Amino acid sequence: MAMQQHFLRPERDADGRSALTNVRAHQRENGHSHALWILAVLAATLVVGLLVSLLAPGASALALSSRSAALPHAVSAAVGPEDPAATPVTWGVRPADTVHGTERPNYAYSLEPGASLDDGIIVSNYTQGPLTFRVYAADGFMTEAGELDLLPAGEESSALGAWVSFAGEEVTVDGGDSVVVPFTLTVPADATPGDYAAGVVSSLLVENAEGVSVDRRLGSRMHLRVAGDLVPAVVLDDVSVTYDGTLNPFAAGDATVTFTVTNDGNTRLAAGQVVRVAGPWGAGAQSAPRVELPELLPGTSVTRTVTVDGVWPLGRVSADVRVTAEVVTAIGATDADTVPVVAPATASASTLAVPWAALALLVLLVGAVVLWRRAARRRRARDERKVAEAVAQALKERDEQPVA
Q1: What is the pTM of this model?
Q2: What is the pLDDT of residues 290-310, one digit of tens each?
Q3: Cα–Cα distance between 168 and 135 in angstroms, integer?
Q4: How far apart (Å, rounded) are the C-alpha atoms in residues 199 and 389?
């Protein structure tokens, strides 16, 4: 009996090893197929992401360089807001042709403190009947939109508008006629050197469709440079940047940069800016398209916002803003070559630019791999239990067989 069992053990061991070898081969095949399936999914995800990033708007930035300094802005001859509800304008104004110039778009002077001059404005009546206008001068200021406007009629001027005087406050113009209204500009002896803005205005009360009287104003702008020490200066403040990513983990996002430019000197300035956004150590740098900056009067500020496309979420992005400016030289000035140079202003800001979409994709992929490995371990444990049960059953059945 011992000899018979001696010959049976190798057979039972061979059967067990054969069953175990078959199960492990099956596991290897399943593992290889699952690995190939995951690689195929990853490859498909990469291809789809790349295609979306290429086709999606904003995936690549259009880098436009901006001029370091803007040219002086053109100036309109008309000033003052218009009321669309009022009746159409029935008169016109323009600077008179005098020794100070002909066919001028506006008034521009350069005077010493204490000096004075005489000039005039032409008021034309386009109606058939006579019209009576109120004529006066008012200080100019910049609106929030960066446009030049004049103080309301009831508000008293304290600078250039107060230095202009008319012989009378009203003028009557016959229908179809034009009248030259003279005025005198006298600069106070203690006037501070620098640039001033105002407007010479003709005002007319008109009745709109609702029967309400509306004060309508037409006029011409006036710029004055008082001789003396010119100290131009431009200041850059309140620079901020925000980042807006995309749901596509393979596409760049947008950076929004806001900044405020202030004329901190005593001259008119024509300014221009360059906005550059980049990641750490200048990686992925992009430039913003140039936004228009209005001509800045002394002491005025404008705030602008630009969007920079094609900024990659590299963890942190920085926005560098540089503003350059030139002094606007008054028409007829003789000291254009002595105008001082304006020092540029620079400022920076930064913000986090986290690639949330890419991190989410990475978490999903890592989670998928972890779940697959756990499932593979469970399958392997289940298969090993089946092998053990099969081997035990085979040995049991072999032991129960009668011995010949």
Answers
A1: 0.68
A2: 888 999 999 999 999 999 998
A3: 8
A4: 103
